[in-house]
Amino acid sequence: MIFVPLLHYFKCKNSYSGSEAGMRYLLTPGKRTVPDPEGGEGTEKEEDILTVDIWPDPWALDQTDPALRRREVFPLSDAGRAAAAQCMKEAFEAEPERWKNTPSILDCEPWAPPAPEEEKTE
Predict the structure, then answer these.
(1) pLDDT in tens, 74-117
(2) Can you tell me the distance from the alpha carbon of 88 to that of 20, in angstroms, rounded to the nearest whole number?
(3) What is the pTM of this model?
């Protein structure tokens, strides 16, 4: 069962990570800038958000190939928290065999970003 802390936990700027079988997840509170519909043209406002990252075992998020990661953003509210929990539940239930058959940390290498290509000199 996937656990998501109460909204107050995230409003205190705490992140939460966990795993279910081979599915890892990270919930992170934050802010984003969006156009302000009441402020007229060219004005923006900040809104509180809850970002959910989902990726497979065995590596940490930054050591996992971006093609294997999934990110969703929700409002930082009770409804957004519930939607984030539902998103993680659906992600797990949609591919249970994928999560249950992740490789062992002993059987694979962490992902590393490709090396920058050197500029050719003429």
Answers:
(1) 999 999 999 999 999 999 999 999 999 998 888 888 888 888 88
(2) 10
(3) 0.83
- How many Å apart are CA 38 and CA 86, to the nearest integer? 31
Integer Cα distance of 95 and 115 in angstroms: 32
Distance CA 16, CA 101 (A): 24
Contact present, 1 and 92 (Cβ < 8 Å): no
| Token reading at 62 | 């930054």
The beta-strand segments (E) located in 6-97 are 16-20, 23-35, 44-56, 70-75
Q: Which strands make up the sheet holding 44-56, listed edge to edge?
A: 16-20, 23-35, 44-56, 70-75
The residue-averaged pLDDT of 45-74 equals: 94
Domain boundaries, the chain: 7-100
Alpha helices in the chain (DSSP H): 7-11, 78-94, 96-100
What are the CA-CA distances from residue 109 to residues 23, 64, 83, 104 (Å)? 18, 10, 33, 10
